[in-house]
């Protein structure tokens, strides 16, 4: 059976490679986030300060999990941190290949409230095939982390 | 269709729990089965959730959300069955191992169980799969903090219990 969306996905494929290349050239990875549907779905962005990247996730009603507090869904925080790590790796390695997640382990330290969140990544070790990244996430104060995570990515 | 509710009596309650979570409504998560032992949730494919535009594969974060929701829901069901109480347990930690990418245009299923419930912590494991649970996309283990039932708001309690009891 032929898949009608096949040619369409081929077109997106070419398109995406050029997007990544352009983002690398411009050194603007916000450009890349604009083309990743999931990053748009949760509404995340990135700011660059010299060599440092700070990822941001503005408050968005759709990202609520527990309506009682209300608090962000833990899965959204995890997705935000995972996407941050991917972009950080791509910037650091200046690559057009999107790293593949192998494992992701998150510790929730505080409830994430219905307000802006920020994330920062540190590439702990980058080997030839695998990279280890640690990610921290906070809201009002960097010292009061709401979550920490570590992840491995395949980068070859 | 009625059969699921007969075999797995907590399906409706689990379904109302997941339905209360805004992010889960957006992901169109659907509870297929719920019991004191397990929860099975379906995540339909949606182009909005793509994390790898070159392949159409959904983002790992979506799988994590599915795992977190299914595991948390399994804890709610397990506590409800054992203590007849509603407790909403926040996630302490969750580790997800990704075995292979989810195939585009197909739903992903999340199967979770709360395998140990202690006085203050609940332990869970979960599997995400598409065609067969023996060919998993991802595996997750988590722990959840138990909090007092009073922490659950009255509005939320009513939403979970449904209309005035119908038994």
Compact overview of the structure:
The complex is a heterodimer of chains A (156) and B (167). Helices cover 33% and strands 31% of the residues of chain A.
List the main descriptive attributes of the protein structure presented here.
heterodimer, A: 156 residues, 6-stranded antiparallel β-sheet, 6 strands, globular, B: 167 residues, alpha+beta, two-stranded antiparallel ribbon, 5 helices, 8 strands, 31% helix
Protein architecture, described:
The complex is a heterodimer of chains A (156) and B (167). Chain A is α+β, with helices and mostly antiparallel strands and 156 residues long. In chain A, 33% of the residues lie in helices and 31% in strands. Chain A has one domain: Thiol Ester Dehydrase, Chain A, CATH 3.10.129. Chain A is globular. The relative contact order of chain A is 0.15. By secondary structure, chain B is α+β, with helices and mostly antiparallel strands. Chain B has a single domain, classed as Thiol Ester Dehydrase, Chain A (Roll), CATH 3.10.129. Chain B is built from five helices and eight strands. In chain B, β1 and β2 form a beta hairpin. Chain B is globular and about 45 Å long. The model of chain B has no long low-confidence stretch (mean pLDDT 91). The interface between A and B is large, with 44 and 46 residues. β3 of chain A pairs antiparallel with β5 of chain B, so a sheet runs across the interface.
List the helices and strands and how they pair.
The complex is a heterodimer of chains A (156) and B (167).
Chain A: H1 6-26, H2 30-33, H3 37-42, E1 45-49, E2 52-57, H4 74-93, E3 100-108, E4 117-126, E5 130-138, E6 145-154
Antiparallel strand pairs in A: 1-2, 2-4, 3-6, 4-5, 5-6
Chain B: H1 3-7, H2 11-20, H3 22-26, E1 30-34, E2 38-43, E3 50-52, E4 57-58, H4 60-83, E5 91-98, E6 108-117, E7 121-129, E8 136-145, H5 154-161
Antiparallel strand pairs in B: 1-2, 2-6, 3-4, 5-8, 6-7, 7-8
Helix pairs in contact in B: 2-4, 2-5
């Amino acid at each position: 059976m032929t898949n009608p969306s096949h040619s369409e996905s081929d077109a997106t494929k070419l398109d995406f490679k050029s997007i990544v290349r352009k983002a690398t050239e411009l050194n603007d990875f916000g450009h890349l986030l604009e083309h990743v549907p999931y990053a748009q779905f949760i509404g995340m962005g990135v700011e660059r300060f010299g060599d440092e990247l700070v990822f941001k996730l503005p408050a968005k009603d759709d990202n609520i999990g527990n309506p009682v507090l209300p608090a962000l869904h833990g899965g959204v925080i995890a997705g935000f941190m995972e996407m941050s790590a991917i972009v950080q790796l791509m910037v650091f390695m200046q690559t057009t290949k999107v790293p593949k997640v192998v494992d992701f382990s998150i510790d929730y330290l505080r409830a994430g409230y219905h307000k802006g969140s920020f994330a920062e990544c540190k590439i702990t070790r980058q080997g030839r095939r695998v990279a280890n990244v640690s990610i921290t996430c906070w809201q009002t104060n960097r010292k009061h982390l709401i979550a920490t995570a570590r992840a491995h990515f395949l980068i070859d | 269709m009625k059969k699921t509710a007969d075999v797995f009596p907590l399906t409706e309650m689990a379904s109302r729990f997941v339905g209360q979570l805004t992010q889960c409504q957006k992901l169109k998560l659907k509870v297929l089965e719920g019991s004191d032992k397990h929860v099975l949730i379906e995540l339909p494919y949606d182009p909005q959730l793509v994390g790898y535009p070159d392949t159409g594969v959904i983002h790992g974060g979506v799988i994590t959300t599915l795992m977190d929701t299914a595991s948390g829901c399994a804890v709610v069901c397990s506590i409800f069955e054992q203590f007849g109480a509603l407790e909403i347990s926040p996630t302490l930690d969750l580790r997800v191992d990704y075995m292979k990418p989810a195939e585009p245009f197909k739903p992903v299923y999340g199967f979770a169980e709360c395998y140990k419930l202690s006085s203050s912590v609940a332990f869970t494991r979960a599997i995400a799969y598409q065609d067969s649970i023996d060919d998993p996309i991802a595996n997750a283990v988590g722990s959840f903090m138990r909090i007092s039932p009073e922490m659950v708001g009255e509005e939320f309690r009513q939403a979970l219990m449904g209309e005035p009891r119908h038994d």
